[in-house]
């Protein structure tokens, strides 16, 4: 078989997606490769196809146990022999896997990085021919990446210890240039073929909301998504528990997930979500990497994450099946404080200099993340800019592109704010933070303010009539427009040279204000440009539902998640084609030979039964 045949026969796809073929070719020609593809882009095929074409065994290094388990289940389901080695195996299971691997029973062997250094594994590696080493979630090797895993650093030694060096393929969805460089250097890739595919996920709708009350905003969002599946991310364990409790008390089928929970409990939550027994999982960032649930319809961030990388990765868990999905961030100024606290309390295991450097970068990343929450330009554009990807001016599928704005003239309040900043500095001899400026302008009786004597300034109380939020929004706008800047070290607010234009030069300042809230897909059902045809086409909804029911039945019988049987996209295509023969069944996108053999009959029967019922 050649690569196209493997793609069709084993995986049921008719053509490669962007980047896949290039990476497969790299391996087949014996070269190292670095592939950066968005979540759901199809990274696994880039090593699974070569694994089937090459003679020996492919070692896949992967950080998370749940991911391995699911991937191996999916491979076995497609008739491909694969196994995994990690701490969840009993001694006996482990021995069996070692023995079968020695006998050449597996094409793919998934292994946790911690295993590489163990004696048993090293001995096995001397006894088999390794044809490819694939490093999944390769960004874990970089200390500057999101999920640094020290055990990834042992990979180059492992590769060097192999009797013959196979090609090494590194894959990740995290793409900053810095992390890419780290991956190539630390993994010791040799002149790798680099392949960075489009980062854009057109089927994802992005929005940032600044609700007065997050909980009621969240409940509103969930109310319009009752039958949908989604993740609610919180910044801390305590918040996750609190939010989950409230949701449950309001009748939402939610479970909680964070690293502080007991193993069994956490696994139960994950399974409930994975197998569609609960619609919503409320989680900290501990829930994520390795979650291979394709039908996540929304990801709501109850708190702002620490970086845009983290945000895009977490939000990117929505819509992996290509269906329209929503990524909504509920922002409040308090999130910035929480994030600062988390940054300040991290990095204990590092030396002083390293920790300082890490924090400096963390603060930079936080600033970019905060910028996302405050920008009025296209949110997708903001993300793609950060990852150095080209994009259109407006995407038409984000909160900012959909919202209509009115430009409010804020020149006079801007002058008040800027002169307040200048006056405070004249009085105290130093600049202060946003809070004090807002308090001064609003005439607060705060003790610290009074102690500093700021109530005697001429700008004291000038904006008494405005809400603190509104004043803060204006400060943000002035910062965004370059009249103010936040001192990165002291978090004080300082005027820039440009401020003089507003104070003395008659320069006008405007601020966009929302006219209407953006609509989300949960409220209005509509197809978006770029969304794959994974929703049933009109007229086939009922058959689609029948096929889904059949899938649920099969998945339950086999104890696997539904998508392991077939994805929604496959069912939608099946509903559209309504095959009657095995031959037609093989034409359905996503149906390979093994799966056709395994499930064909059941689905053909379901289709026939549906049509019969339809006629009567
Ligand atoms: P990643 O690891 O990059 O997040 P996966 O490898 O899990 O993504 O693939 C995501 C989904 O895309 C899977 O459901 C897979 O079946 C599908 N997929 C991958 N390659 C193709 C292709 N060439 N054609 C159609 N679907 C594909
Ligand atoms: Zn947009």
Summarize the structure.
The protein is α/β, with parallel strands linked by helices and 616 residues long.
Main sheet, how many strands, which sense, barrel?
7 strands, parallel
| pLDDT averaged over residues | 89
Strand order of the largest sheet: 3-4-2-5-6-1-7
| Ligand list | adenosine-5'-diphosphate, zinc ion
Q: What is the end-to-end distance?
A: 46 Å
Structure commentary:
With 616 residues, the protein is an alpha/beta fold. Helices cover 45% and strands 12% of the residues. A seven-stranded parallel beta sheet has the order 3-4-2-5-6-1-7, sandwiched between helices. Strands 8-13-12-9-11-10 form a six-stranded parallel beta sheet, with helices on both faces. A two-stranded antiparallel sheet has the order 14-17. Helix 5 (91-102) links the parallel strand 3 and strand 4. Helix 22 crosses helix 24 (568-577) and helix 22 (541-558) packs across helix 26. The longest helix has 23 residues, at 352-374. The two termini are 46 Å apart. It binds adenosine-5'-diphosphate and zinc ion. Residues 13, 16-17, 20, 37, 39-45, 292, 294, 320, 567 line the site of adenosine-5'-diphosphate.
Labels describing this entry:
binds zinc ion; 616 residues; alpha/beta; 6-stranded parallel β-sheet; 17 strands; 7-stranded parallel β-sheet; binds adenosine-5'-diphosphate; 26 helices
Give the topology:
Layout: H1 3-11, H2 20-28, E1 33-36, H3 43-53, E2 57-61, H4 65-77, E3 82-85, H5 91-102, E4 108-111, H6 119-127, E5 130-135, H7 155-161, E6 168-172, H8 177-186, E7 193-196, E8 204-209, H9 214-223, E9 230-233, H10 237-249, E10 254-257, H11 263-274, E11 280-283, E12 298-301, H12 308-315, E13 325-330, H13 333-344, H14 352-374, H15 379-386, H16 399-402, E14 405-409, H17 411-428, H18 434-441, H19 447-451, H20 468-480, E15 484-486, E16 493-495, H21 499-504, E17 510-514, H22 541-558, H23 562-565, H24 568-577, H25 582-586, H26 593-615
Parallel strand pairs: 1-6, 1-7, 2-4, 2-5, 3-4, 5-6, 8-13, 9-11, 9-12, 10-11, 12-13
Antiparallel strand pairs: 14-17, 15-16
Helix pairs in contact: 2-3, 13-14, 18-20, 22-24, 22-26
The chain binds adenosine-5'-diphosphate (ADP) and zinc ion (ZN).
